[in-house]
Amino acid sequence: MDQKKLKTRAEIPEANKWHLEDVFSDNNQWEAEYSHVEKLLEEGKKFEGHLADNADMLISCFEWMDDLSLRIEEVYAYARMRRDEDNRIANYQALTDRAGALAVKVSSAASFVVPELLAMPEGKLKEFRATSTKMELYNHVLDDILRKKEHILSSVEERLLAEVGELAEAPGAIFSMANNADLRFPNIVDESGQEIELTKGNFIQFMESQQQEVRKAAFKTLYGTYEKQRNTWAATLNSSIKSDVFFAKARHYPSALEASLDDDRVPLKVYDSLINTVHEFLPHMHRYIQLRKKALKLSELHMYDIYVPIVPETTMKITYEEAKNMVIEGLRPLGEEYISILEEGFSKSWIDVYENEGKTSGAYSWGTYRAHPYVLLNHQDTLDSMFTLAHEMGHSLHTYLSNRKQPHIYAGYKIFVAEVASTLNESLIMEHLLKKTTDPKILAYLVNHYLEQFRGTIFRQTMFAEFEKKVHLVVEQGGALTADNLSEMYRDLNSVYYGKDVVLDPEIALEWARIPHFYNAFYVYKYATGFSAAIAFARAILEEGQPAVTRYLEFLSGGSSDYPIELLRKAGVDMETPAPVGNALQVFAELVDQLEKLLK
Fold it and tell me: How is the co-factor bound, per the entry (predicted)?
């Protein structure tokens, strides 16, 4: 790929684009389905006030809700993925806005169900569940509703909250538009002296440059651009956090954090234990930072020196085709079934590969129940991009297997377990590469890269999680969030996590302004817990073989048929103890030891 100038969407080869026609053949079919969903909304009126009439009425209502849910997911996913291809296209901005508004209407139309169920005499619901075999499908759903009884409001209040939902999405939508469609970065000079446009997609590539001046220029250019709107970013994030706090209070939760955790039935101690365990292992993180400073022969280690590989001779260029082959080889321990699904994804246009003008940055896996998973990439021909491909296909196979095994109502897995499959893929591929590599320099490079995965996924995401906890607490205690105090809190956390051997460049205090996950509160800690669970699974698969693979594939097929903590426990990983996080960080400590020896 020519990185000198960003390509237009039309210049990207069709073979490297996803095939959204597997969801809707064209926009006309999307419009027809949109209209069908609008008509289905009206059917809810016949159920309202009648759920206690008989079991058949309740079952019909559940079936209506499930059908509505399946259809709105397709309507929204198609519109949003089309928009993500090029955020500047007004038609797809409009489709996405309409789909979002319709999703709120769907939520509102079904808002009577839970309050009406909770108002039903307990004996009647028990009778329905005992006398109708069709009700068995909904046992887990009903149990989950009943456990949240104290947080469910009246029908009128629930409908109002559902309507307010569209307003609550505004901060995230504004951030996404500003960050993806409007933000432009100046050119910087690369290693060969050529001027290249800085983009969010190639930023990390520049941060891995062997020339410190290039890294510094990319760093200062990126944050200098965000700095110009620092107060706007702060106001947008503050609005998002206020929204989180409002909904938590409305539902009678002690805090926004506890409201978020309760959705997955995750105890607060899991979140706090993660932060505490990571703090215990910070001396090993600081040891790694010291090693980095020494290996790079720098008198001062800056925040823009954190990403550069510390074994420069082995910088790897990996094409997309090579990346696919590396992923297949590294994941062979997961068995033939897993590999065949993976190859199907590679060959059947699940993946949108390269960056283009206006395309949403980063990477994700999405999809629909009746079609298949999709993956958005911004591939850059680096080792990191190969691992991103492995990561997102981990999500996709989790989705594929859950969709195949579970009815739609239980197909979607909870976010708490969403990062397990993705990071397990990365871990298995890394273990494969470490075993087959004999060149000490390449081995050192890979160990360093593995350490970076730990740093980026456990340490960095836990730092984000701690930041989220702190900023929500400010709002919950009646305080205000400004660009200044957000930056101060963020800078202080960087100081704690990176230690005294890093120069905290002033620009890093503004990093919070560019993190999209902060608009989906208390999401990022799940990267760290998921990574820890993935390390546990990877070790079991490599040591036990087929029995561990069988347990793992059953976990991937579980969807949301049980609570995430329970699904993991059944597969052999207990996240209610500090052991998985502590054991994963022990691996990190051993890798630091290994790298120290390799670099002597």
Answer: Binds 1 zinc ion.
Element (H, E) at 84: helix 55-85
Structure tokens, 77: 């996913």
- Residue 442 CB: number of other CB atoms within 10 A? 16
* Token pair belonging to 134: 């069709």
The architecture CATH gives domain 9-168: Up-down Bundle (1.20)
Element (H, E) at 187: strand 187-189
Return the active site residues: 392
Q: Are 589 and 291 in contact (CB under 8 A)?
A: no
Task: Read off the tokens for 517.
Answer: 């996950």
Tokens representing residue 22 in the block: 């597997």
Q: Are 241 and 521 in contact (CB under 8 A)?
A: yes
Quickly count: other Cβ atoms within 10 Å of residue 10's Cβ: 8
Phi first, then psi, for residue 151 (nearest 5°) are -105, 0
Q: Which amino acid is at 117?
A: L
Strand stretches in 362-487, DSSP E:
364-367, 373-376
Transcribe 207-261 into DSSP letters.
HT-S-HHHHHHHHHHHHHHHHTTHHHHHHHHHHHHHHHHHHHHHTT-S-HHHHHH
In 3D space, the residue among 331, 313, 335 whose CA is nearest the CA of residue 323 turns out to be 331
Edge to edge, the sheet with strand 351-352 lists 351-352, 373-376, 364-367
Cα–Cα distances (Å) from 131 to 56, 134, 395, in that order, read: 11, 9, 39
Q: What is the bridge-based pairing of β-strands 351-352 and 373-376?
A: parallel
Distance (Å, whole) CA 435 – CA 425: 16
Give me 78's structure tokens: 């198609």
Whether the pTM exceeds 0.70: the reply is yes
pLDDT tens by residue, the chain, 600 residues: 444 689 999 999 999 999 999 999 999 999 999 999 999 999 999 999 999 999 999 999 999 999 999 999 999 999 999 999 999 999 999 999 999 999 999 999 998 998 899 889 889 999 999 988 999 999 999 999 999 888 988 888 988 998 898 889 999 999 999 998 889 999 999 999 999 999 988 898 899 898 999 999 999 999 999 999 999 999 999 999 999 999 999 999 999 999 999 988 999 999 999 999 999 999 999 999 999 999 999 999 999 999 888 876 566 789 999 999 999 999 999 999 999 999 999 999 999 999 999 999 899 999 999 999 999 999 999 888 999 999 999 999 999 999 999 999 999 999 889 889 998 999 999 999 999 988 888 888 899 889 988 999 999 999 999 999 999 999 999 999 999 999 999 999 999 999 999 999 999 999 999 999 999 999 899 989 999 999 999 988 999 999 999 999 999 999 999 999 999 999 999 998 899 999 899 999 999 999 999 988
Torsion of CA 232, 238, 239, 244, to 10 degrees: 150
Q: Taken in order 300, 305, 306, 310, is the CA torsion positive or negative?
A: negative
Q: For the chain, how far is it from start to end, CA to CA, in angstroms? A: 37
Strand, helix or coil for residue 202: coil
Q: Classify 146 as helix, strand or coil.
A: helix
What residues form DSSP beta bridges with 366? 374
Task: Give the distance from CA 353 to its chain's centroid.
Answer: 18
Angstrom distance (rounded) from CA 316 to CA 446: 10
Contact in structure between 243 and 171 (CB atoms under 8 Å): yes
